[in-house]
Each structure stands twice: as C-alpha cells, then as structure tokens.
Amino acid sequence: MTETHHAPLPDEYPSSRQPTSSTYSRYKKFVLPLIGLFTLVLAYTTNVAKPVSNSTFHVPASPQCKKPQAYRPSFNKSVNLILNDKQFKIDSIKKLSGAIQIPTEINDTNPLPDDDLEYYSEFFKLHKYFEETFPLVHSHLKVEKVNQLGLIYTWEGTDPSLKPILFMAHQDVVPVNREIWDSWQYPPFSGYYEQETDYVWGRGSNDCKNLMLAELEGIEQLLTDGYRTKRTVILSMGFDEESSGFMGAKALAPFLLERYGPDSMFSIIDEGAGLLRLDKNLYIAAAVNAEKGYVDVRIAVHGHGGHSSVQPDHTTIGVASELIFMMENHPFEYDFSLDNPIYDVLQCAAEHSSFLPPHVREAILKAPVDESKRKVLTEFAASHPDIRDLIRTTRAIDVINGGVKANALPGLTSFIVNHRVDIHSSVNETIENDLYWARVIAEKHGYGLTFHDEVIIPETKLGHISLASEKMLEPAPVSPTAGHVWEIFAGTVQNLFQNEILAEQKDADVYVTGGLFSGNTDTKYYWGLSRNIYRFVAGIFPFDQLRTIHSVNEHISASSHVSAVAFVYEYIVNVNEYGHD
Fold it and tell me: Which cofactor does it need (predicted)?
C-alpha cells in the first residue's frame, strides 16, 4: 500500500551560509548543459589543440591507473538473460518507451503539489504506469510518497543491522520547446525504438528515465528470481531535479535522514557519467564522485532616473555594463590540483592510451613530482573551453534587466551572475570576488555599495550598487575512490563490462575512476546520509548521445540501457555478498 507523507521543505541548500563583513575584509588583502566529465574527454579526443611534441615519452613500468579487482556475484541467475536475451531486451525497451511517452515536464517555477495537483497529472500517470509495469516491486516493496509526488521504495532486508543501499533517479524531464518540435527525428514523447541504430528516442531517454527504469527493472528481476536481500534497498525518486529539486529531493532526503540517521547508507548511486571509449580498446568508467558548488549573485545598480535629455556621464545601464565587462575580463584563476577527480581520468588516459600528445602525457604523469609539469598540464587544460571550467570557479551573467522607456533614464539596472564553485574554493570566496569588482566600479563612479543589509560604502547622491547571494551550495564532499565500499562498486563495474559485456573483445581494457561534474544532481541534499556517493549510469555512451541531453533528438542505445539493468542486479547482490559495515 502506498503511504503519503507531507514533509516540510528546508529553506536552503545544505551547508550554506552568508558571507560576513569580516570575510570581505580578509579578501581585500588578496585582491572570483550536462557539462562535466563527458565534455572533458570529448575535448581531448576530438580537439587536441596543441601540436604533438617531437620528443618521446615512455609510460612508467608501474602504472598508477590499475584495474580494480572484479567482483562476480555467486547469485547471477539472470545476468546473462538481461544482457543477451532478445525477448528480455524487447520487453525492457517497451518499459522504457512507455515511461518516455508520459511527458513529466518540469519548469523553472512550479506550484506546490498540495496547491495544484492537476499541474502534476502526468506524474500520477507515471506512478500508475510503474504499478502496472513492475507488479513484484509493488507487491514486495513498501511504497511511500513525500509531498505527493516524491517516491520512496523500500525493500526491507533480513538483517536490519546492515546499512541500506540507496539508489536515486528523478521522474521529471526538461521541457520540449514546442517551436522546434518538428526538428526532432521522431516525436519527443514517442519513445520510438529504431532497430537499425538500436536507439530509443525521446525526452528523458538519457536524463534520466533510463536510470529510473533500470533500477526498478533490476529489482523486479531479482524478485522474479526469488532473491532475498539481507541489506535493505531503497529507491528515492524526486520530481523536480531539473529545477534544482526544491520540492522533491529537498524533502525526500530529510525524510530518509530522520528515519535512518546520519551516515546511515552503505552507498548512494544517482545519475551521472558512464563508460567512455577513449580509443579502440580503452574504456574508462568515470563514476562522478565530486560536484562543484553553486551560488547566484543578484547585482543591482540603483540610481535616481530622470529625463534622458539631461544625460549623466553614465546611466545605471552603463555602470552595470562596465561591471559586467570587468567581471568577464577577470575570470577566476585556474588551479589544476592533483586531487581533482579529473586527474585520475587523465592519468588513465596517459598511461593506457596514445591519443594524447607525448608532451601532455609526460606532463600528466610527472605532475605529482614536478611543479613545472603541473603548470604545463594546467595550461593545456585551460586552453580547452570544454575542460577549463573543471579546474576553476566560473562566472556567467545569465539575466539582465534595465530601463522602461526610451526618453527616461533607467533608475535601476539589475543582473544575475551564476557561479559554479571550484572544489577547492567556497561560496564565500566566490562572493567576495564579486564584491571586489563591485567595489572597484562603485569607487570609480562614486556609488555606494551594500551586501544584503550591510553597508560597505554609504550611498551617494548618484545611488548605490547592491549585491545579494541566492541558492548557495558549497562544493560537494569528495567521495572516496579507495576502501571497501569503493572496491565493491568499482569491482562490480569492472566485472560487468570487462568480463561480461566486452568479454568477446579480447583486447578491451576497462578502468574505473572517479570524475567531476560542474553541475549539480539531486545528491546535493543527501550528503548527510553517506560519504560514498557515486553518480554513474552503467552504459557505454557515444558522444553523439551525450550532445542530445537537454536538447533536440535525445536518445540512448537500448544496449546501454540493459547494461544498466544488469549493473543494478549485480551491485545489489555483490553488496549483500561482499559488503560489511
């Protein structure tokens, strides 16, 4: 039976705090699409800008990037069925296609479910579809709803002393622009399967109804096989991840935290990267174990208006434009620290592949012991637009408003600056950089300056510049890529792909590393539940698929989808068999 819970919504992102005047004073002494790991590797494989050095470089005899021990479950009744049976694949495609056909679109601004249930009618259709499609899941697992739409499935284990495994996904999808509907190769909510290419087409096929269906289908198959789990397995499915999860994950995570307590989950698996094929025989499974932080800063130039025939030296639009110009022309500094998870990916590529220029491979592998080589590596990464933002804080001016009439001076001009905070920086440091440039412009043009309610420079006869921070999120804790929990996760991935999916490709090599996202998933609300958070979908994703996420012609290969089902199946069994708390 489904239970409904009305959980309170927290006011802010986790680990957020306002900067203070003292932090600003300290700063004065030091004068701040799905992008992420996928675009990193894409840039290396398709757009190596620097020339190949004439020098040669030999890979060390003892590589640091090594294959993890493969964990093969003793209970694997249906793994071969999932991966190789034609009828299973057909049925799996139908299940995914049916979910895609339910357009659970979510906008940037949405009503509370309690205020407008009709607005979310497609989500209730999806819930009904789950009940019909996965009967064993709904007869054996406890189903609860939080804030009407958030779903929690609980498969109770026989040993309550063991930490549960938590799988995540989100029910919502990015809206489809109706003006370019006809640009889609197949209708965006058709869930069409193209046998010639093995692609399933449609919005949500790759973000992330594929993961949601894989989790449900993997458990359904385990139940079909009569499997009994010792360790409790939980599915937590938000409904507004594409608008930051303010009503879904933001309520689901505290609900679980109250029930199970801090650090209560063995591991958390959510949407993220998959396997990347770097060259003919090299595959890297990049499990994203870190995410950058986030903060929006709303900046406004307050003036006094007037008739445009009496022209000031600079209108508020002009002052705001100069501040924007200064910010864009003084970006945050690059810092390629070797504990950045993307270094692990590059290290594997440098040691086991030849597509990188020799001087770059040398820089990657010698960076830990040679500061000059680390500088070469930083310069190389900074020269690629798709890579550089993973080694610095970013600042993008995304919204601007000013003026109401051609013959009236604008009394107010405002804009919003979106930042993705480097893993070694902080929200405070980021805001302080904005404050620094705002002060430069305020002092140059004779304006006051405020931050929230704090007056930094008193208002002048011209007006003042105000800054306010919103939606603050510190960089995510970096999950370990060593130790018992990681070994089971990586070992499951290694076994599934090296020994099963790619077994016939005799010279294929699979390596498992961490990775970094510049965006944020719903896991931002779940930090308190586990230090072992891995954002990973167990599929091999060609770059043409990655480019369509949030865009026209989103699609996924059916083979990648069934491999994700197999991973859920194997991982649950492996954690039960090999895991200890």
Answer: Zn(2+)
Q: Which of 144, 172, 271, 362 is catalytic?
A: 172
Separation CA 196–CA 508 (nearest Å)? 25
Stretch (H or E) spanning 154? strand 150-155
CB 420 within 8 A of CB 476: no
Q: What band does 31 get if pLDDT is binned at 50, 70 and 90?
A: very low
Helix (H, G, I), strand (E, B) or coil at 253: helix
pLDDT band at 37; cut points 50, 70, 90:
very low
398 is catalytic: no
Q: What's the CA gap between 192 and 194, in Å, rounded? A: 6
* Per-residue tokens: 305: 């208006």
Q: What is the pLDDT of residues 377-418, one digit of tens each?
A: 999 999 988 789 999 999 999 999 999 999 999 999 999 999
User: DSSP readout, 280-292?
Assistant: SSEEEEEEEEEE-
Check whether 170 is labelled as a binding-site residue: yes
Residue spans of alpha helices (H) in 394-508: 427-445, 484-494
C-alpha 476/C-alpha 118 separation (Å) is 35
Exactly one of 220, 241, 386, 522 is catalytic; name it: 241
Alpha-carbon gap, residue 177 to 130, rounded angstroms: 27
Q: Is 241 a catalytic residue?
A: yes
Note whether 457 and 448 are within 8 A (CB): yes
pTM: 0.90
3: annotated binding-site residue? Answer: no
From CA 514, how far away is CA 281, in angstroms rounded? 20
Backbone angles phi, psi at 416, to 5 degrees: -115, 130
Strand pairing class (293-302; 412-421): antiparallel
550 is in an annotated binding site: yes
Rounded CA gap, 384 and 336, in Å? Answer: 13
Helices and strands: H and E segment counts in the chain: 17, 18
Half-sphere exposure of 328 (CA within 13 A, CB side): 10
As a whole number of angstroms, the distance between CA 278 and CA 496 comes to 18
**299: helix, strand or coil:** strand
Q: What is the dihedral of CA 451, 457, 459, 461, to 10 degrees?
A: -140
Is position 352 annotated in a ligand binding site? no
Domain boundaries, the chain: 66-291+476-578
b (16+ CB within 10 A) / e for 44-69: bbeebeeeeeeeebeeeeeeebeebe
Pairwise CA distance, residues 239 & 145, whole Å: 11
DSSP letters spanning 454-520: EEEE---SS-EEEEEEEEEEPPPPPPPSSSHHHHHHHHHHHIIIIIIISTTSTT-EEEEEEEEESS-
Q: What CATH number labels 66-291+476-578? A: 3.40.630.10
Locate 508 and state its tokens: 């294929």
Q: Do residues 270 and 287 touch, judged by C-beta distance below 8 A?
A: no
Q: Please tell me the distance from the alpha carbon of residue 312 to that of residue 309, in angstroms, as a whole number.
A: 9
Residue 371 annotated as part of some ligand binding site: no
User: Bridge partners of 270?
Assistant: 535
